[in-house]
Amino acid sequence: MRSRHPAFSRLAETLGLALVMGLAAFVVFGPLANLAIWAFAEQWFYPNQWPTRWGFEFWARVFRPRAGAWESLWNSVSIAIATVGLSMVLSIPAGYALARLTLPARSLIMLVFLLPQAFPSLPIFVNIAAIFYGLGLNGSLFGVVLVHSLPGLVYAVWIATASFAAVDRSMEEAARNLGAGPLRTFRDITLPQAFPGLMAASIFVFLDSIDEFTGTYFVGAPDITTLPILMFNASMGGNYQIASITALILLIPSVGFMLVIERFLKADVLSRIGR
Amino acid sequence: MGTEALSLEEVSIRLGQSLILDGISLQVPAGSFTCLLGPSGCGKTTLLRAIAGFAPLSAGDITVGGRSISNLAPEARQTAMVFQSYALWPHMTVAGNLTYPLKLRGLSKVERDRRAEAILSLLGLEGYGPRAVISLSGGQRQRVALGRALIIDPPLLLLDEPLSNLDASIRRSLRGELRRLQQKVGITTIMVTHDQDEALAMADRIVLMRQGRIVQVASPEALYSAPADLEVAHFLGVDNVVDLRPGDPVAAGGALAGFRTADARVFTGEAPAGLDAVLVRAGTVTACAYAGGSYHVSIDLSDQAGNESLSGASGAALSALSSVPVAPGTRARLSVPAPMLMSFGADSRLLQGIRQ
Questions:
Q1: Residue A177: which of B52, B89, B90 has the nearest Cβ?
Q2: pLDDT at B36 over 90
Q3: Are the beta carbons of B257 and B335 closer than 8 angstroms?
Q4: For B148, which of A170, A178, A180 is closest by C-beta distance?
Q5: Model-level pTM?
Q6: What crossing angle do the helices spanning A69-99 and A240-264 adopt, rounded to 10°?
Q7: CA B6 to chain centre
Q8: Which of B56, B71, B300, B310 is deepest in the core (most CB within 10 A)?
Q9: Is A268 on the interface with B (CB under 8 A)?
Q10: Contacts with A102 (C-beta within 8 Å, 6 or more apart), sequence order
Q11: Does domain B6-228 have CATH number 3.20.20.60?
C-alpha cells in the first residue's frame, strides 16, 4: 500500500509531535517523577524497572518521633521565620534610607551589597564557621539564623528599596502637611504602600532559608538538623525513600510561595529596583 | 481656627552654589487669593514648599497671623497644601483620605464622619465616601484633594498647580469653581501656576516671579495693562514689539512699544480716518491663518530699507488681526490704537501702560 493517504500523514505528524512533546516533558519532569516514585516505593532493587512494592511505610518511618523529621521540620521553619524577622528588621530602615538617596549613590551601595553573592559561597561559609567557633555560635540556632540572613538580607534590602522607592514622595508630604509626624507618616502612609514588596521580600528570604544547605552544614551540623541536612544525610546513606519524602515536604513552601507571589508581587514594584 | 494673613520677610533659599529664592518679601492679606506666576524654574514652587515647610530657609522669616513658622516642622504649621499630583492615598477610600487629618487631631468617629459628609456636599461629591480613590476621575480627585486640605479648617491654603493635570475644558470650569469655593470659605489662598490665563481669572493679586525674585506684585488688571518690563509683558501675551520712531503716538523718551495681536488691525487699502492716534507700520504679509472670527496675519517689516533700525532684537515680524483674508506677499499696513500701546525705555522697563 502506497501510503499517500492524507489521514495517514496527518496521523504521523500528530505522533511525531506527541513524541517531541513527550521527550521534552520527560527531560523537565523526569527527575521529579523519579522522586515521586521513590517516595512511595517500599522495595525497588536493580534489575526491576518499577518498584516491586508500593506503600507509605517510609512515610511512617520519616514521621516516627525518633527519626528526627519532625525536629528538623520544626528547626527549618523556626530558623526560616527568625531569618525573615531579622532580615526585615534590618532591611526596612536600610531600604527606606537607600530609596531616599539620589541615584548614583544608591546604585553603588546596592552593587556593593551584591558582592558577597558574587564570591563562591563555600569559602565564605568556611570562614564564618571559623569565626563562629571563636564566638561559640557554632551548633546554635542563632548562628544558623545569622548565616541564613547573609543571603536573605541581599534579597530583602534590594526588594525593600524598590518598594520604598515606588512610594510617591508627595503622598508622604501630604501626610506631614496635614499633621502627621515622620513616624506616623511612615506607619500610616509609607509602610502600607510598600507592603506588597516587603511581603515578597519576606517570601524570598523564607524560601532561601528553608532551602539553605551549605551554611547550615558548616555552622549548624551536627547539632542542628534542618530538612536539607536530613535529606543530604539520607541520600548519602543510600536511603532514597527518606530523601525523596523530605524533598516532597520541602516542595510545600515553594508551591505556597508561587501562589502568594502571584497575589502580592506586582511587576511595577520589581521594575523600580534600578530607579 | 479662622483665616490668617501671611508675611514673608527677606526669604532666601540657597542650594549649593545657586540661589533658588533671593530675598523674597511679600505681605498676603487674610482672605485673599494670591497667585505666584512665572516661567518654570523661577522659584514659585520652591516658595510654596518653603511656606509649607518642605524647603528649609537659608535666611529670612515666614509668619502666619504674626507668629513665626520658619522653625516649625511641616506637621506643626497647619498650612494645608494641595499637591500637583493630588497625592491622595490609594490604600484609603475617599472618606478615609478626608478624615485622616481629623483622626490625627483625635476627633471622634461620629464627628469625623459628620465633617466628611459636610465637605463632600460642599464639593458636590455626595455619596462618594466609600469609593476607592483609584476609581475617581481627575477632576474628582482634584476636589477630594482640596477637601482633604480644607477639612482641617486651615489658616492658609496652598495650591501647587492644582489644575495643570486636567483637560482644558474641566480646567476652565474648575477655575471658577475653585474661586467661588475660596470666596465662600474665605480662606487665605496662595496658588502656584505658570498659566497666565488661570492667574488672571482667579487671583485677587498676582506675584510675578523670575529667577528667584519677585518682579511685580499687582492686581490682574494692573498686571495686564502695565507689566513691569518687556519680559513680563511678553509672558502676559504682549507678542509684538517695535522700535519707536519720531511721530509715533507714545510718550517721549520711549525706545520700544509693545502691543497684543488682538489689539492690532491690518489694512491694505487707504488709511482709515483718525490716523494720527495710531501707530502704523508697513510690510509684507508672510502668513495668514483663520483664527475663528478673524484672520491672524503675520507681517514682515525687515525689507523696509532704511526705515527699521536693524538692531535685530525687535520689530522684524509683527502679527495682527484682519476681518478678511490677506494673501501672503501682499504689501499691507498694520495699525494699533494709541491707548493699546505700551512703551518701554531702552532698559526695557515700562514707561507707559495701556490706557483704558
A1: B52
A2: yes
A3: no
A4: A178
A5: 0.78
A6: 30
A7: 19
A8: B300
A9: no
A10: none
A11: no
B331 - beta bridge partners?
A: B284
Q: Minimal CA–CA distance to B232: which of B267, B193, B258, B264?
A: B258
Structure confidence at residue A275 (pLDDT): 44
User: Is A177 within 8 Å of B80 when comparing Cβ atoms?
Assistant: yes
Spatial separation of the C-alpha atoms in residues B176 and A77, rounded to whole Å: 62
Residue B225: which of B181, B186, B183, B259 has the closest Cα? B259
**Cβ atoms within 10 Å, residue A16:** 10
Question: How far is residue B104's CA from residue B92's CA, in Å, rounded to a whole number?
Answer: 15
Residue contact B79–A177, C-beta within 8 A: yes
Is there a contact between A179 and B83 if contact means CB atoms under 8 Å apart?
A: no
CA distance B356 to B337: 11
Gap between the Cα atoms of A234 and B16, Å rounded: 65
Please write down the long-range contacts of A7-15, taking CB distance under 8 Å and 24 or more positions apart.
none
**Residue B333 — very low, low, confident or very high, per pLDDT cuts 50/70/90?**
confident
Which residues lie below 8 Å from residue B333, measured CB to CB, with a gap of 6+?
B266, B267, B268, B271, B280, B281, B282, B283
The answer, for A136 touching chain B at a CB cutoff of 8 Å, is no
Q: Please state the ipTM of this predicted complex.
A: 0.82
Whole-angstrom CA distances from A153 to A143, A191, B130, B232 are 15, 18, 39, 56
Q: Are B151 and B185 in contact (CB under 8 A)?
A: no
Say whether residue B245 is in contact with chain A using an 8 A CB cutoff. no
Q: How many CB atoms lie within 10 A of CB B136?
A: 18
How many A/B residue pairs have CB atoms within 8 Å?
A: 63
- Mean pLDDT over each residue of chain B, to the nearest integer: 87
Binning pLDDT at 50, 70 and 90, where does residue A127 land? confident
Cβ atoms B70, B25 nearer than 8 A: no
Q: Which is nearest to B250 in space by CA: B283, B284, B279? A: B279
Domain segments of chain B: what residues? 6-228, 233-352
For residue range B217-258, what is the model confidence (pLDDT) as tens digits?
999 999 999 999 999 999 898 989 888 887 777 776 788 889
Which pLDDT tens digit goes with each residue over B170-226?
Answer: 888 888 888 988 888 889 999 999 888 899 999 999 999 999 999 999 999 999 999
Task: Return the pLDDT at B313.
Answer: 44
Residue of B nearest to A195 (CA): B91
Say which DSSP state B226 is in: S
Q: What is the 3-state secondary structure (H, E, C) of B170-216?
A: HHHHHHHHHHHHHHHHCCEEEEEECCHHHHHHHCCEEEEEECCEEEE
- Within 8 A of B52 by CB-CB distance, chain A residues are 173, 177
CA distance A232 to chain B (A): 46
Q: Which residue of A has its CA nearest to B74?
A: A177
Answer whether B90 sits within 8 Å of A193, measured CB to CB.
yes
Degrees, nearest 5: CA angle A258-A259-A263: 110
Any B CB within 8 A of A178 CB: yes
Residues facing residue B217 across a β-bridge = B207
Neighbours of B18 (CB within 10 A): 9
**CA A175 – CA A183 distance, rounded (Å):** 11
- Set of cell numbers at residue A145: 539564623
